[in-house]
Write a structure and sequence with these properties.
By secondary structure, the chain is mainly alpha-helical. It has 7 helices and no strands. The model is unreliable at 151-160 (pLDDT under 50).
Length: 160
């Protein structure tokens, strides 16, 4: 066990291959259980982190689509489509992540706004304080938000 623990520290890839071989051959008593458990736990965390990152990118592009209609581009649309495809693949692979979409929507929206501010040049107050889209809309391949055009300030005329 100490030898496997040393291998884990010195050559992670070799440790994964060695551990997989031990598991496949049924030599469970030789497996570095502590590190194997940590790595399995981390795999789940990586999937959730990827889901949240993709949701933030998708939400940011939906905001840009909505708030900068004159700058819409095939590249923005491609990013929206790509993120939806990748999120769908993640959810098919790990359906237990689906409830996390709603649970993490508010936090992901905050991250999306933070990403959108430097890309749009708008202040964060330009965007709604809460996510204007439902999870269903965000994932719906047919959904694109309508343009939100900021009303121009009225000029007051001075009367003589």
């Amino acid at each position: 066990m100490e030898q496997d623990s040393d291998l884990y520290e010195k050559d992670f890839h070799a440790w994964t291959q060695h551990t997989a071989a031990l598991l496949r051959s049924g030599r469970f008593d030789e497996v570095d259980i502590a590190h194997a458990a940590d790595e399995i736990d981390d795999m789940g965390k990586r999937d959730l982190k990827e889901l949240n990152s993709r949701m933030q990118i998708l939400l940011m592009h939906l905001l840009k689509w909505q708030y900068q209609p004159s700058k819409r581009s095939p590249s923005w649309l491609s990013t929206i489509v790509s993120q939806r495809i990748e999120i769908d693949a993640l959810l098919r692979q790990s359906p237990s992540l689906r409830p996390k979409l709603l649970a993490e929507l508010a936090d992901n929206y905050v991250g999306a706004v933070k990403r959108a501010v430097p890309e749009t040049g708008f202040g964060k107050d330009r965007f709604p304080p809460r996510c204007p889209f439902t999870v269903e809309q965000v994932l719906d391949e047919q959904f694109l938000p309508e343009a939100k055009v900021r009303p121009k300030a009225r000029r007051t005329r001075e009367r003589s």
